[in-house]
Automatic annotation (TrEMBL):
Domain Palmitoyltransferase DHHC: 34-118
Record has Transmembrane as a keyword: yes
Organism: Scopus umbretta (Hammerkop)
Alphabetic keyword roster: Acyltransferase, Cell membrane, Endoplasmic reticulum, Golgi apparatus, Lipoprotein, Membrane, Palmitate, Transferase, Transmembrane, Transmembrane helix
Pfam families in the cross-refs: DHHC
Protein name in UniProt: Palmitoyltransferase
Principal subcellular localization: membrane
Catalytic activity: L-cysteinyl-[protein] + hexadecanoyl-CoA = S-hexadecanoyl-L-cysteinyl-[protein] + CoA
Amino acid sequence: TFTVFLVSFAGMITKSNHASLVKIYAYDGVLFQKGVVCPTCNIEKPARSKHCSFCSMCVHRFDHHCVWVNNCIGAFNAKYFFLYLFTLSAMAASIAIITAAFLIQVVLLSNVMRGSYIDDQGQEHAVEILFLIQ
């Protein structure tokens, strides 16, 4: 998913695709005014588009510029961005579960729960789970 996201087209607005992108969303007259021209691109901005200062291009349904892939998140690659976030989250959850299972096995096999420790006052205490978690 990372590779697909990395090379996916965000929706950069050019003179060749401008006419088709203008038809997708209607201007609401509040946030998106008809006839507003991007001073950098010198193209009339379609509704829900914004200029990206990193890419120096106007992007259709611009969300943000992702520094992890050095690409804009726009109308045409947002689904790949969300899929990428989902796979990263699933991987992090899998690693957390595997690590927790491994640590539980280490604790059970080492018999550390049957041990004891001596505190600052010299008193002996049985090891508790909160002591191990620290």
